[in-house]
Specification:
Helix content is 15%, strand content 44%. The chain contains 2 helices and 15 strands. Strand 1 and strand 2 form a beta hairpin.
Length: 216
Amino acid sequence: MRLFNLFSIAALLLAITSCSNSSDSTAKTFCDTACNSDSLHFKGENKLNPVVSIGLRDCKADSVMWTHDLAGGKMFSLREDLGQDVYLNKSAIDAYFKDTSYVWLQFNDCKTGRGYLMKLPYSKSEDRRKITGAFTKFDPKFSIAPNLIVFTDRGSVFVENLENDNKATMSFDKPYDIDFNKLHEMVDSVHVTKDRIFVQMIRDGKTVPYEKKVNL
């Protein structure tokens, strides 16, 4: 009986260690997932004080609120909007304010590495815009020039210049069945500037480069 108990305890410890290592490797792949209860706040430079705040609950992103001095506050549940929990860290999120018109949120889930983009307009007549397949500057394998946003629909890569609204598109030769919660199984690296899009994908275990000159 004692021998059986020793084997049982050893197996349990091994399982716990294995799970812990797996979780740690997933988290450390991207950013710190240590429990954070402090809300994240961003403020634009316009005199009407545009702001956006992300509240956290149980270590996960909860509500998003944005407003300015002449606009009524808007709010929604990030968890409900995205359909999954998102773990945030201030090292992998930022905000781009376009005067008092709107704010773009760019962030990654620290647990999966998945990238997101959200356009939050201050006008009540304009709808929010949500992108759940973003390539962000926070990913260590991606290089994105300042004020550019990059995303994909699995068949093409889209780039937008937030300063002048110029846009560019680069299409793949055929769609990739990307699981955005396991992005790097198919997306090896991304390098985007105002004059060039370069994306290296993975197909059947081999890297496939795509490149296009643009003018953003």
